[in-house]
Amino acid sequence: MEQKDFLLREIEKIGTLLRMILNSFTGKNENITISNKCQFEKTKELLFNEIDFDFEKFLSFDISSSKDYILQFNGINTDNLELLAEIILQFSINEKSEKRKTYLEKALQIYELCNLTDKTFSFERESNITKIKKLLITPIEN
Fold it and tell me: Which of 4, 33, 90, 133 lies in disulfide reach of 25, CB 3.0 to 4.6 Å?
């Protein structure tokens, strides 16, 4: 029973953290907007400090290693995976370098992992997958 309570607390903790980060990107909070680069660095730091998620390490992994890395965290469920994918998608929106493609590919990998692990079809998830695939074939505007 204690193990179940621990997992539920971890799921809630990660979900709260990811929603807070996503809200800061989408302007759904009342904080003063900070630069994208600063916000990106702050997000990476928060993920590392709060849940020991090393974003740069995650970006360097292939598909299989990425999946293994993500699934090692207690508290990762489909909802939290979707929040993480949305955060990475937000990173890509303002990125004008080749990192944009990397961010989009990682977000797509996470959404596809959600499809593999979740037995429920999600129109929103499928919409985001389609959006990412379109962005991947769109040239980067300078």
Answer: 90
